[in-house]
Amino acid sequence: MKKKQELYAGKAKSVYYTDDPNKLILFFRNDTSAFDGEKVDQLDRKGMVNNYFNNFIMQKLEENGIETHQIELISDQESVVKKLDMMPIECVIRNIATGSLCRRLGVEDGLDLNPPTFEFFLKNDELHDPMINDYHIRSFGWANDAEIEAMKILTFKVNDILSKLFSDAGLLLVDYKLEFGRFNGNIVLGDEFTPDGCRLWDMETRQKMDKDRFRQGLGGVVEAYEEVALRLGVKLPE
Ligand code: 5GP
Known about the structure:
Blueprint: E1 3-9, E2 13-18, E3 23-28, E4 31-34, E5 39-42, H1 46-63, E6 70-75, E7 78-82, E8 85-86, E9 89-96, H2 100-105, E10 112-122, E11 131-132, H3 134-139, H4 145-168, E12 171-178, E13 180-183, E14 186-189, E15 198-202, H5 212-215, H6 221-232
Antiparallel strand pairs: 1-2, 2-3, 3-7, 4-5, 6-7, 8-13, 9-10, 9-12, 10-11, 12-15, 13-14
Helix pairs in contact: 1-6
The protein binds guanosine-5'-monophosphate (5GP).
């Protein structure tokens, strides 16, 4: 497969066309950013760890009946994926209250949410990813009723699969963000699932093992990602 020109450069990944119009290459860079790109840094090994981590999670989801865009890992920092028609929407599930939920609603940090809560956000850095609802999505034509329903159902299904996977590794899946796209008439999971886009706390100590370590300047960011990978059994190169 030939890598062609860049389609899009995000804050931590670059996306390339290939000689197959239905496939793209994701390049996981070492860049990390927070607060809509206000805080940025380069972290050794991060691109590689996230590429292997994402490949592992996407495979687990596929094994459990969730269609994802992931096809295969082709180098330490690259994967081939199906080219989806992405919806500009972020789907967030929260099992424990923290982050923007606490800032917005004034609820106690660390509160268990039973049942978990679901939120849609518009993917738009300039507007700081504002929260939106089903009506906004329909009125602005970002997705139709069936697609909205599918995104909710799939995001909750992912929660069941991954909460168990992480809990078996001694980790709490606190919250996470998913993005979906259209492919051959189906709603398919796109983007990535890595510690950059979810919160993971150690079950015993509640120590943060995700990008909050970078956001909050706690250090040991990639070390924490590698510890999570190790606990899950993700095989990383030396
Ligand atoms: P919050 O709304 O509390 O900032 O984020 C909720 C969850 O979604 C967190 O796990 C966070 O990492 C993830 N999330 C929300 N928006 C983004 C985003 O724009 N980029 C990334 N990487 N993760 C996000």
